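Re: folding output
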Amino acid sequence: MAQNAGVGPGVRVLVVDDDPQILRALRINLAAHGYDVTLADSGAAALRAAADGRPDVVVLDLGLPDLDGTEVVEGLRGWSSVPIVVLSARTDSTDKVRALDAGADDYVTKPFGMAELLARLRAAVRRAAVSVAADGGAVVDTGGFRVDLAAKQVERDGRPVHLTPTEWGILEMLARHPGRLVAQRDILREVWGPGYATETNYLRVYLAQLRRKLEPDPGRPRYLLTEPGMGYRLQP
């Protein structure tokens, strides 16, 4: 994961799109807000640029000439937890779910407002720089998996489990309060930002992803529990 905790000046952003006008517009606008911008116009170029430049956040179009954007997400997730904000003209919910399931952290639909995109970028970078728990060394062991808040690591059966920054942000918040109900709105505000307090569909998608990675039987969760209409609980 990139270590730059800023949300503007000095943050390295990789913009991936095959439309030269969009690339130019984003380069100008992001640079004007202090971002260090790298551009790529294909999936292969994006993967090379990410490996060489280690960006703090990626803005990714799905409709690329050589690879589908979802394949780029999967390629990045093979070795990196960099936040990925999809920027796409595809509005079908199936495309959104596929991108999120592949490991994307957010999805912005074209046409888009620059103010919204900047806010999404700031939120994505904040989530990737989630602060360590106040005690600096808490470990929560459920019996099925182990959460080390200080090291920002999760292990299942003695092996590390890869989580996206958003997945980690949710799990960390639950692990700070083991056994206690954490309200949906509190998770949304903490992980996505104050403007997302009612976007409960986000949580459903990401909790399903976490259960697939951590629960012995995702369809009958033992540790990541839902309190319908209220919130979620990490049961040690």
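--- second protein (sequence, then structure) ---
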Amino acid sequence: MSRTDRLFQLMQALRDLPSPATAQALAQETGVSERTIYRDIDTLRGLGAVIDGEAGFGFTLVEDATLPPLGFVPEEIEALVVGLKEVMEVADPSLANAAKSALTKLKSRLPEAQAHRLKHAVLTAKRFHKPPEISIDAGVLRQAAWEERTVAFDYGDAKGQRTTREVDPLAIVFMQSAHCLMAYCHLRKDFRAFRLDRMINLDVTNGSFRPRRIPMLREYKARLDAEEKQSAIPRASD
């Protein structure tokens, strides 16, 4: 492996591993010695990467905007285009615009040949049947999930019957043909999936469930994986 390839691999490991990443973890991820990791960290810092941390504590990549343009293999470029185009097709307006902006920024950071490949990608995404229109501010809901704040809203089930729910928001998933909130429902005392197009009067409460979002989300996903193995399709809340 060339030195340049090794540095790129280390940068990717710093992005992927939980922060702060120890030299031991980085060495295992990249297949080099810890001494080489320390030396390469110094090299990256010299090139302009902002990397916090030190030996015995771990390292966190803060930014790398001054480094040379990113490089991707052709399949990675196609995957990025398809993923961002899919977000532009199915996401709420705020997130769709963010995906469009990200695609533009990515193009400006790539070498000319790869930027051309991104612009004229073979793969793309197009949906002729748009998801149901979301009736709440999805951006507010996403922020509440990040901040681990309990939210309340009025919810209509498939029969049109409405209930007031208070839930701990865990994640928003495009499930089947609609956006769904994966959450822990205080009313049902269990995990539930709520369609965003059936939610109204969203209110972010002062209640906090920090720092339980990630463990709860893992538990919910494990349950969904088990249901999938039994050929069960996750359904929206009753």
